[in-house]
Write a structure and sequence with these properties.
Two copies of one chain form a homodimer. By secondary structure, the first copy, chain A, is mainly alpha-helical. Chain A folds into two domains: 97 residues; 387 residues, Neurolysin, domain 3 (Orthogonal Bundle), CATH 1.10.1370.30. Chain A has a three-stranded mixed β-sheet with strand order 1-3-2. The longest helix of chain A has 31 residues. Chains A and B meet through helix 1, helix 2, strand 1 and strand 3 of A and helix 1, helix 2, strand 1 and strand 3 of B.
C-alpha cells in the first residue's frame, strides 16, 4: 500500500462514515420529532439496511487493511492522523475479539430488550423485563472477558464510557461525595423549605418557545447551525458534522422550569459539539470526546450558570415580560430559590442539583454488584428500593418510578451512569479555574455568555476528540481532578438558598 | 448466474435503493422544513457522497450484469419482475448512451444553473440566466440525440416525462383546449366579476393548521402514515416507501385559500402514493407512475372535488366555526364563487382552473420552438410576454413574474409542463366514468371521500408503477382519452358560477 494514497483513503473513509451517520441520525431524529406515528417499521427497514452497509464499511477487510497499514506507519503520520487511526481501530479490535454469532445475537436481543423495557416500565412490571436484563448482564460480562481477559469486567465498561475510569476511582469519588452530600441534604431539610410556586402555573407553549429561542441566543448558540424541535424526551444530536446540530425540548404548560432548563442543558451539549475546530468536520475527531466531558458542559450551563444568582437576576425581567400574570407576585430572588429547591425525589432526570448525584451513586453501586455477581437481577428492585430509602430517605411506590425508570440497562449500558456525576463535578472545577481569568458573576448578571464560552472553547471544545478526556481535564483544570470543588460549590449554593 | 439467486438479488437491490432514497429524500425534506438556515453546505456534502454511492449501486457492473441476465430470462419471470427489470434497465440504458464526461458536466451545470436562476428570479435579471439556459437547451438536445437518434429531441423528452406523449398528441390536445377555453374566458369576462373577498382577511396560522389537519382527515389520508409540515413551496414526498409520506403547506395569514387548496392538492398526491398495494413497498413499482397521472390525482382532489359546489356547502360551516368573524358576512355560495373566480393572471401556480391550461400551453409552445431551434434563448422573454398578451390578455411587468417564474427550465426539464394540463384533463374524464357508479355530488355534500377514494384506489392507485400510464388510463376511462370531458366540465362550472 502506498502511504499517500492510504492517507487519502483515510479521509474518504471518514467522509463516507459521516454521510451515513448524517442519514441515520436524521432518520432517528425525524422519528423522535416529525414522523407520522405509524412509520416506525419503515424507519427500521431503512436503518437495518444502512446499519449493515456501515458495519461493512467500518469493519470490512479493506478498512481493516487500510487502518492496520496506517497503524504500522505511525511515525509518518501527523498527530491527528494517528488519533483517527487509533479511534477507528479501537472498535474494530473489539469486534475482532467477539465471536460474530454472539455479537449478532446481542444486537438482536438489545432491540427486543429495549422494547420489552418500554412496556415493562409503562406497566410497572419488572418480572417481564428481568429475563432480558439477566441476558444483558451476561453478554456484557462475556464481551468484557473476550475484549480484556485480564481486566475486571465492570472496570472494562467504565473505561469504555469514560476512558481512564475504573471502580477504584469511582469508589473514591462517590465516597467523597456521599460523605458531604448526605449531611448537606439533612442541613437543607432542617431549614424551612423554599417555595417553587413561581414555576407552577399555566405557561403558554408558544411563549415557552419564544423563551427557548431567546435562551439559545443568550447562550451564544449559532441558530444558523443549531435547530430546536420538540420531543417526548429532550436530546441533542449532530447530523453528519458539527455544522448541523439539533437540540430538542418538551413544553409542559404546568411547569415553566422543565423546558427552560432542558434547553440550557441541551444547549450546553450543542455548544460543545459545535465548538469543534472547523477542520475536524467529517472526521472521527469531530464533536465531543466522552460522556463525562459532554455532561460537564451540559450540566455546567444548566446548573452552574443557569441556576446561578446572577443569571436569575438577568433572566427574571424576561420571564415577567413573557408571563406577566404568572410572575406578578414574585421577585427574582423567589425565582432563584425556586430553581434551587433541594428535595429528595424519585426520578433522576427531575432531581435537583444536590440530590442528583445520589441517584447516580445508587445506580453505580447496583451495577457494580450486578457485574460482580453479588446481586441477582431478580433481587434488583428490592435492592433499589432499599437504597432509595437509605440514601434519599424516600419510599419507591412502584418499579415504574423505581428500577425501571431509566433505559440504560435495557441496552446493556452498564458503566454509563457515573459519567453524569463526574461531569457535574468536572464543571465545578472548571468554574474555579475559569474564575481566575473571567468575572463569571458579572458576565451572568449581564446575560453575557461570551467570556465563559470563549474559555470553554479555548480549553475544551475546539479539540473535539483530538485529546483524550484526561488530557482535556489537565488542559482545563491545570491540576488533578478534585471533587471538593464540586462539594464546596454545592455547599455554598445551599447556604445561600437555605440561609444556614 | 443462477435464476433463483438473481431473483433474490433483484429484491435486495431494490430494498437497498429504497433505503438510500429514504435517506436522501429525508435530508432534502429536512432542508425544506426543519434544518437551520446555515446547514445547506453540510447537506450538500452528505448528498454528494450518497449520490455517488447510489449511482454506483444503480448503474455499476454488478447491477448491469444482474439486470441483463434477468432481462434474458423474461419467460421465467413474473409480470412484476419483468416490469421491475424494465424500469431499472431503462435508466441504465440511457446512461450507457451518454458520454460520461458530458453527463458529469451536465449534472454540475444543473446545480449552478438552478442557483443562478434563483438569483436571476429575485433580481428579475434574465440576462444573467440566459447563458445557463442556452447550455441546458444544448445538453438536452444532445442527450436526446444520443439516446434516440431517430426521434425528434422534444418528442424524446415529452415521452420521458409522460410515457406515450409526443408533439402530435400535445398539439392536438392543446389545440382542442385553446379552441374552447379562449372563448370561455371571454364569456366569463363579459359577466360581472364574482367577489373573492371572503378569502381575504387575517387568518390565524394555528387555525389554518387545524383546518389543514381536518382536511387531511376528511380526505381520508391516514395520518399514521402521512405527515404535514410547512415549507416555502408546498410539495409531497415519499420516504423509502409509500408507508411514510409527507405533504407540506404554507400558511398566508391574508389568504385563506392558499394553504387550504395546497393541502388538498398535495393530499391528492399523497393519496395516490400511499394507495400502492402494500407489497409494492421497497420496490421500484411503489408509488405513482408518471407526472401526468400524479397531477390527475392532485388536481382532481384540489379542483374537481375541492372546488365543487357540494364540497363548498360541506366545508363552509367548518370555516365559520374556525373563523367566525371573517366568515360572518358570507354564505357558502359566496365561498363557492370565490374559489372559482376566473381571472387571467401572471403566475401559473396561482392561476384559476380555467386559465391554468393557457399558462401551460404558453410554456409548451415556447419549449417546442426552443428545442426545434426556431427560438433563441435571448428572444425568450419577448416571446413569453407576447404570448401572455395574446393568450391571456395581460402585460407582463417584469421577468420575475414572467419567464423566470418557474424553476423547471433551469434544471433542463423541458417537456415537463404538458403533464400538468394533461393530468387536469385526465381527472375530468375519470370523474365522468366514476359518476357511472358513484354518486359523487351526494358524497361531497356529506364530506365523504370514501367512495371516490375507493374508485381511484381500484382503478389507479393500487397499481403503483406496475401498469404504464396508458394502461392506467385505459383501465380507468374504459375508452380513449378525450379532452372534451375536461372542456365540458370547465364550461359547466363557468356557467354555474358566472350564470350565462
Amino acid at each position: 500500500m502506498e502511504l499517500e494514497q492510504a492517507r487519502k483513503d483515510l479521509v474518504t473513509l471518514q467522509v463516507k462514515m459521516s454521510a451515513y451517520s448524517h442519514a441515520m441520525g436524521l432518520i432517528s431524529y425525524d422519528g423522535e420529532t416529525t414522523a407520522p406515528r405509524g412509520t416506525a417499521g419503515n424507519r427500521a427497514q431503512t436503518l437495518g439496511i444502512l446499519s449493515e452497509i456501515t458495519y461493512q464499511l467500518s469493519t470490512g477487510a479493506d478498512t481493516v487493511a487500510l487502518l492496520e497499514y496506517l497503524d504500522s506507519q505511525k511515525e509518518q503520520l501527523t498527530e491527528r492522523e494517528n488519533r483517527m487511526v487509533y479511534l477507528l481501530l479501537k472498535d474494530i479490535r473489539f469486534m475482532q475479539k467477539i465471536p460474530q454469532e454472539e455479537y449478532v445475537a446481542f444486537e438482536k436481543l438489545a432491540v427486543e430488550s429495549e422494547d420489552v423495557w418500554h412496556s415493562a416500565k409503562i406497566n410497572s412490571d419488572f418480572a417481564s423485563f428481568a429475563p432480558y436484563l439477566e441476558k444483558m448482564v451476561d453478554y456484557r460480562l462475556r464481551f468484557a472477558r473476550y475484549a480484556a481477559p485480564d481486566m475486571d469486567p465492570y472496570d472494562y465498561w467504565l473505561n469504555e464510557f469514560e476512558p481512564g475510569l475504573n471502580r477504584e476511582k469511582c469508589d473514591a469519588f462517590f465516597g467523597q461525595l456521599k460523605a458531604r452530600l448526605v449531611p448537606l441534604i439533612h442541613q437543607c431539610a432542617a431549614r424551612p423549605q423554599v417555595s417553587d410556586q413561581c414555576l407552577k402555573g399555566n405557561f403558554d407553549d408558544a411563549r415557552q418557545e419564544t423563551l427557548a429561542y431567546w435562551l439559545m441566543d443568550v447562550m451564544g448558540l449559532d441558530r444558523d447551525h443549531v435547530g430546536l424541535s420538540t420531543t417526548e424526551h429532550p436530546f441533542t444530536t449532530s447530523l453528519g458534522s458539527h455544522l448541523d446540530e439539533r437540540i430538542t425540548t418538551h413544553y409542559y404548560p404546568e411547569d415553566l422550569s422543565s423546558s427552560m432548563f432542558s434547553v440550557i442543558h441541551e444547549g450546553g451539549h450543542a455548544l460543545y459539539d459545535t465548538g469543534s475546530d472547523e477542520d475536524l468536520a467529517y472526521t472521527v475527531l469531530d464533536g465531543g470526546v466522552s460522556m463525562g466531558i459532554h455532561e460537564s458542559q451540559s450540566r455546567f450551563y444548566e446548573n452552574i450558570l443557569g441556576r446561578s444568582k446572577g443569571f436569575a437576576r438577568f433572566i427574571f425581567p424576561k420571564l415577567q415580560a413573557l408571563f406577566p400574570e404568572e410572575m406578578k407576585p414574585y421577585t427574582w430572588q423567589d425565582f432563584y430559590k425556586a430553581v434551587n429547591k433541594v428535595q429528595p425525589s424519585l426520578i433522576r432526570t427531575e432531581a435537583d442539583e444536590v440530590t442528583y448525584c445520589l441517584h447516580v451513586m445508587i445506580r453505580y453501586e447496583l451495577e457494580k454488584r450486578l457485574m460482580a455477581g453479588e446481586l441477582e437481577v431478580r433481587d434488583l428492585p428490592r435492592a433499589w428500593n432499599g437504597m432509595y430509602r437509605e440514601y434519599l430517605g424516600i419510599d419507591v411506590p412502584d418499579d415504574r418510578r423505581g428500577v425501571l425508570q431509566d433505559s440504560h440497562w435495557s441496552s446493556g449500558a452498564f458503566g454509563y451512569f457515573p459519567s453524569y456525576a463526574l461531569g457535574s463535578a468536572y464543571g465545578a472545577q472548571f468554574l474555579a479555574k475559569m474564575k481566575e481569568t473571567v468575572d463569571v458573576d458579572a458576565a451572568l448578571e449581564k446575560g453575557d455568555f461570551g467570556p465563559m464560552n470563549q474559555w470553554n472553547r479555548e480549553h475544551i471544545w475546539r479539540y473535539g476528540c483530538l485529546l483524550t478526556p484526561a488530557q482535556i481535564l489537565e488542559n482545563a483544570m491545570g491540576q488533578p481532578f478534585d471533587p471538593s470543588y464540586y462539594l464546596n460549590y454545592l455547599e455554598a449554593k445551599c447556604k445561600d438558598v437555605y440561609g444556614f
